[in-house]
Amino acid sequence: MDIAALSIGMSQMKVQQQVDVSLLKKVMDTSGQKTEFIDKMLDGASVKNMEMSVQPHLGSSVDITL
């Protein structure tokens, strides 16, 4: 068995594993950011829904006459 080839193969596997871990961390960070954005969007929507339930007649229709 060739020790040099084995060493190179193990080194390449280690680098590939480091790349995989880095990519996974990046995906997890991006997912967290998207989750925070969705939470903010839903919070805004729930406030609007509460306003509509308290005063449903305001802002629900537009009367346009020429």
TrEMBL record:
InterPro entries: YjfB_motility
Superkingdom, natural source: Bacteria
Protein name in the entry: YjfB family protein
Annotated source species: Salipaludibacillus agaradhaerens (Bacillus agaradhaerens)
